[in-house]
Amino acid sequence: MPALPACKHTPRPYSGPSRSEVLALRRAHLTPALTTYYKEPLMVVEGHMQWLFDETGRRYLDCLGGIVTVSVGHSHPAVIAAMHAQIDLLVHSTTIYLHPNVSQFGQRLIATFPKDSGLEVVYFTNSGSEANELALLMARLSTGNHDFIALRNAYHGMTNQAMGLSGLATWKQPLPQALGVRHARCPDRLRGAWGYNDPDAGRKYAEDVADLIRFGTTGAVAGFIAEPIQGVGGFIEMPPGYLQHVYSAVRGAGGVCISDEVQTGFGRTGETFWGFEQHGVTPEIVTVAKSIGNGAPLAACITTRKIAESMTKRLHFNTYGGNPVSAAAGMATLDVIEREGVQKHAADVGGHFKAGLRKLMERHAIVGDVRGKGLLLGIEFVKDRASMEPSGPRCAFVHERARELGLLAGKGGISGQVLRMAPPMCLSREDCDFALAVLDQCLTEAASCQF
Ligand SMILES: Cc1ncc(COP(=O)(O)O)c(C=O)c1O
């Protein structure tokens, strides 16, 4: 069993209800619509940077970072201190009053976007779903158009409109949702018509959006939304050139372009602070959540002043959006990202991690693909390389077994065939080597199992 890298943090003794009591309470009193990872659900009671601790004090390397949420480390001391300081003063106020944190954080957030982007005003929300609802609303109000394009295999949240934007049957409740939204083909170079070796794949996949506008809409669209790397869909990267061609087709039909940066933002992909910057495009609207608050409930929809003004004909309000404690967490998180060179670290450690995963792929035939950027990395499992048939069961086996060996990861893809790694960005090279050793063992064991 690979040895966990050392950690100086000693967890506090846990004295609360046992794991089985909590499980029984949850089964009795929480909705059965909730799902848990693992055959024996894991209870976590403490976190420190890249580590999570269960009730027995056992330590796990959190390679999922909450769910791509903990950007700079669980209970990072600087973020916690800023939250404590604000909690002592005032926990709650809304935007009907002025509060320095909320306005200052707006200014700080805007400063992270390219100077000439035109992205200049923020609407704070509590969740990525709400941010995407706003983005869709503003796209429609500002253009006067209704038809809208999203991508198959995308995930944009679970409110009704965000569910409608999502393009995965597994995440769509069987009810009408998002009237007017059409889903274009996912530009998946592993499984689609044009592969990684085709330098023109981006333009070819983008043709489908132009086609959809021509044949599946009124010809005038409100906009288009995409994640630069699809998260829940299994870390599918938009091919080079794709977004440029799509943005131009969408703008040609009167629409605006939205980049859902809920998983790709805040330097996680290493090369740039925002995912869209790697594609030579500038969206009119950007939605962010998760990493923005290092785990505090905070999200935002950022756009141009002109587009935001389209909402001023009616009242609009969000009770917790722009909360002073969450804004304090957001500012402190940005401070850490800047001060500790987190983006550069994500590029460096992520490159090391990806190179290690590629080496594993050379030796393990059930790995069909390794992809992603920075610290947003996925492994796609297949039955074998000849058929390339996606294999959810192999991924589930590795996911479960990795937990037993001290490594927590995520799952994604329509059949749960992708193991997802998006750890807190304080992950070290030594931690990567531990994760790689665990995965090596799990992959070896998986090869001799009957699925
Ligand atoms: C890309 C993307 N957009 C939007 C959302 C929705 O965010 P939330 O769960 O905060 O509503 C998610 C959540 O996983 C996401 O991954």
Summary of the model, kept short:
The protein is built from 13 helices and 17 strands. It is an alpha/beta fold. The protein has a seven-stranded mixed sheet, sandwiched between helices. Strands 1-2-3-15 form a four-stranded mixed sheet.
What would your notes on this structure say?
The structure is a single chain. It contains 13 helices and 17 strands. The strands form four sheets. The chain has a seven-stranded mixed sheet with strand order 4-12-11-10-7-5-6, with helices on both faces. It has a four-stranded mixed sheet with strand order 1-2-3-15. Helix 4 (100-110) runs parallel beside helix 10. A hairpin with a 2-residue loop joins strand 1 (44-48) and strand 2 (51-54). The longest helix has 22 residues, at 342-363. By secondary structure, the protein is of the alpha/beta class. It folds into two domains: 19-33 and 40-50 and 61-72 and 342-447, Aspartate Aminotransferase, domain 1 (Alpha-Beta Complex), CATH 3.90.1150.10; 78-339, Aspartate Aminotransferase, domain 2. The protein has helices spanning 19-29, 65-68, 77-89, 100-110, 128-143, 160-165, 201-216, 242-252, 305-309, 324-339, 342-363, 392-404, 429-447, and strands at residues 44-48, 51-54, 59-62, 121-125, 147-151, 181-184, 221-226, 229-230, 236-237, 256-260, 285-288, 299-303, 367-373, 376-381, 407-408, 410-412, 418-421. It is globular, with a radius of gyration of 22 Å. Bound molecules: pyridoxal-5'-phosphate (PLP). Pyridoxal-5'-phosphate (PLP) binds next to helix 5.
